[in-house]
Amino acid sequence: MSVEYSKLPGQTFYRKTLSALKLQMQPMLLSTSYNSLPTVLSNLRHSFIEVAQKSYHYIHSLPASKQPPNKLITRTIDDLIKLACVLMKRRERTKKDTIPYGYCVSGAQARW
């Protein structure tokens, strides 16, 4: 992630973090048609870890006065989990794909 010093660093952090997760959500890695459930959960976990590392470095590269408040960081984490679930479910509903896609990860499993 590139660091932007803007007037609203919290909103930029939030937007960039969600965008980073979208890049990690590859259908091939999250499909239970190709992978077992433990593999899908592991891939999802690795996606979250990579986004967390990027976000950590982004926050710590900002000056202390521009770092997002803890409340925003907590909201970002909750929204990341919700976004991951939405992206996996939305991918399941796409009928014009030639690649079979299976989804069986619940929101509770993603949150865990």
Automatic annotation (TrEMBL):
Main localization, broad class: nucleus
GO molecular function: metal ion binding; telomerase activity; telomerase RNA binding; telomeric DNA binding
Keyword match Transport: no
Coiled-coil boundaries: none
Subcellular location: Nucleus; Chromosome, Telomere
GO annotation terms (biological process): telomere maintenance via telomerase
Recorded GO CC terms: chromosome, telomeric region; telomerase catalytic core complex
Reactions mediated catalytically: DNA(n) + a 2'-deoxyribonucleoside 5'-triphosphate = DNA(n+1) + diphosphate
Uppermost EC category: transferase
The organism's place on the tree of life at top rank: Eukaryota
KW DNA damage (keyword) present: no
Listed EC numbers: 2.7.7.49
Protein keywords: Chromosome, Magnesium, Metal-binding, Nucleotidyltransferase, Nucleus, RNA-directed DNA polymerase, Telomere, Transferase
Family under the similarity heading: Belongs to the reverse transcriptase family. Telomerase subfamily.
Known function: Telomerase is a ribonucleoprotein enzyme essential for the replication of chromosome termini in most eukaryotes. It elongates telomeres. It is a reverse transcriptase that adds simple sequence repeats to chromosome ends by copying a template sequence within the RNA component of the enzyme.
Name listed for the protein in its UniProt record: Telomerase reverse transcriptase
Gene source species: Extremus antarcticus
